[in-house]
């Protein structure tokens, strides 16, 4: 969970509970990631790292200007000026982070958003790192298998935050995660890690029965003591009734699932595609909203199972999820 929720403490807690935490490399400099890697390594636990592989969605300049102008009244409420923010099409320091993982290898590296070059995958594997790719369809699973990764993270549409789809111009198809796991298992022999909407022990058992060898969870840990979710995000999760998530491009220009709020209601239908340009455009507005306790203008990433998130140690949450296995 990039952007703050997944902390080194959460990664360590997951490992100490018998799992393997995955440190979020997205939205960090290579130097910041290296510092967090050092903290996790010092604990001597198994762990992984997730990177955003480049798969940009170019934004139409006219649509960008239109959207920026539409957002400015919202930003004005928080004292933020968006008028000087240019179109930014960076790659999240991709090469620097890959070089970091090659110089100081980690046990597991997974990729989201895009499929890395085969040379990158080969180099990481040669360094002793197990590699994994997030996929959202059987067709994407075939592409990742051909690219040479070691495992697949099969993400269903119920997942919170960004969809890992390799085709971000389209919203992910909503279907039960167990069905998606079966479809992917039908086209590849790679190990499958199931992700998306898994917040109860029965859900975990279902996807393992469908063919997954492990599961990955995020939303159910947002309220854990080790989570880095903001106080505004935590409060909104605790107050939202069931069935209140929406898939939206409004915050970043790429499909992501969040709690409905005034921002998603107003801008989901009109937000242009464009990642990471829209991410950079809305970032100062969102940071100001979090600091001000303004949940109506914040990206409240959450999967459909958010009502099951509880404020307790991560180890207790994870052990409960695995109790029926």
TrEMBL record:
GO terms for molecular function: dioxygenase activity; nitronate monooxygenase activity. Pfam families: NMO. It comes from the Bacteria. GO terms for biological process: response to toxic substance. Its cofactor is FMN. Keywords: Detoxification, Dioxygenase, Flavoprotein, FMN, Monooxygenase, Oxidoreductase. This is Propionate 3-nitronate monooxygenase. It comes from Amycolatopsis albispora.
